[in-house]
Amino acid sequence: MLQQLFGAATAIVLSVGVCVAFFYGANALLDYYATASGLDHRSRDRRERVRSIVQPLIFVGPALLLLSIFLIYPVIKTVQYSFMDRGSFEWVGLANYVWAFHDQEFLQSIGNNILWLIIVPSMSTFLGLLIAYLTDRIWWGQIARTLIFLPMAISFLAASVIWKFVYDYRGPDSEQIGLLNAFWVGLGGEPQAWITLPFWNNIFLMIILIWIQTGFAMVILGAAMRGVPEETLEAAHMEGANEMQIFFKIIIPQVLGTILVVWTTITITVLKVFDIVYAMTNGQWDTEVIANMMFDTMFRAGDAGRGSAIAVVLMVAVLPIMWWNIRNVRKEEI
Amino acid sequence: MSIMGGGLHRMTMGKALKHATVLFFVLIWSVPTLGLLISSVRDKDQLAISGWWTSLSSKISNDVVRMGSADDQQQQGDHYIITGSVFEGNNKGTVLTFGFRSDELDAYKAGETADIGKGQTLLVTAAGEYTLSSSEAFTSSRGKRLFFVAKHAPRFTFENYHKVLTSEGIGRAFVNSATVTLPATFIPILIAAFTAYALAWIDFKGRATMLALVVGLLVVPLQMSLIPVLRLYNEVGGYFGFPAKSYPGIWLAHTAFGLPLAIYLLRNYMAGLPKEIMESARMDGASHFQIFRTIVLPLSVPALASFAIFQFLWVWNDLLVSLVFLGIADDKTVMTAQLKEMLGSRGNNWELLTSGAFITMIVPLIVFFSLQRFFVRGLLAGSVKGG
What we know:
By secondary structure, chain A is mainly α. Chain A has helices spanning 2-33, 41-81, 95-102, 104-135, 141-149, 156-166, 179-186, 200-226, 230-238, 243-254, 256-272, 275-280, 290-300, 304-333. Chain A has 14 helices and no strands.
């Protein structure tokens, strides 16, 4: 144990040290070789030109390198692999895509993903908005917000364990130790194995992600709502608008931009998240989603071609969001 | 904060409804976690048969034991007796009633002497000690069955934690998680800070393109990267003769995956710093590196801190990247992967799963509670303009 701790500490110090040394060293070298003092006019200009090229490279170089190796190169490679066989030795044309769109499991995972994409972002955003609004004017609002925000901190996996316990099922003759079944039996129902109930089990898995993401939506929408000018609200109150009208007719239109941002962010999370399905059902009982199926195809079935094809489908699904993001930033820059 | 102005001091139906609604949400959001925490310190036998919400009440259970056989008898005067306890291990309780058939659990009260006939009697005390007594020697090699009803006090224990930390490997995984997380938090912040500064304040060719690239990469699903990067690791590792699944490998992967968001957030923050300071520093002949180190970095501490928390939580809680780049079944398994293993192999041992899950949650929860304000500020900086 002690040896392990020592090894860990050494590794941490070394890795961080290398990183710091690079930036200091590179800049020191630049200062040493490209110093402009004590030179005649022309060579000073030349030095300055070299400097103006090398300087930004030192600053953005490592990031550019890492982004290229870990994100840009893989995107290109994955597209390439998706047209090749399972070991990426031979070209197979569109075969992987043809397989995917004829595969029952894949079609089902697309259907489920669409359900996830509709339900999770809309419910998280709606609940986040509602809770932010309600907690804004009660004295224990801060405590309530902290508790609702808390699931953001824990892993999807720990969250899955928590909810798996809530959904736990025991036979009708024994006492239920899962909260949901205890309620259900208390209301007079038969105990259910919730996560094996086709269709509904999808909803039970989505609840976990909604439970995690609502706090995120709440925090951001709460901040946006505080930006709504108070005079507007007071004026509406004077005119005799009730809370429902103020909420829907004044607050929601004012924070619409932020709602879209939150919605987009959660949508991306939904597309990428696989931990919950992986931990709860691993796609059994009709709960497969694209991200989990891809992991399975790539690493359990060892089929790089088909796995890559699924990854590309996922990528294509994200493209509109990417395009929208870049356009927004471009607009801001101008 | 009073948005509603005059409406505040009237306690109406609407207000009561509002409090009730918020309470309802708070309960749904916190009760599942509470259940996990309570279950993690409960006795495993009690946890297996009763809901955690009943954990403070005593449990009544129906049980059966086989008493000692002829081998255990002792002669006392002209009597033969067999003694023992109905409770095994630390599963102690209080016997209420007992009997000899499953449908006669309440035939005798604890402390009574039951007359079995043929000169045999049985006494069971409330503490669970039984004395089977006979005027003739016992001959049966199988003990007689005793049915009883017992009351068990609620029991709480840290045994689950002890077991999970030692035999289930969570303790070692904890150190592994820290080894992965600390560099994978620090390195991307450093790299992103330099890049963000350049994107905000150095005028260079291709700046706009790089910014668009970073924003575009924000949404690339990292699943896209797994196979190509893993193959790259295998090739490079094979060439230089070190294992593909290594700490440097996962540090770099986490660093790269965290970079787009880090650069984006930090650039937005740094671009908002006052222009005059940078310009006068440039006038005074300061280099970009000096400005970055002495002015921008200290001013950016809030943004750096909030991103640090973000990245820390994300890496600590990650499952996918570590499954692929560290794997399981060797000594580098991180906590989430270890917990996933337990979920597969110990799916019904809730005492282990709950305590294991809580151990994986401790660090994020501490970070969350102590640094919540920075965390929130970081979220806001990235999502709401002027937040």
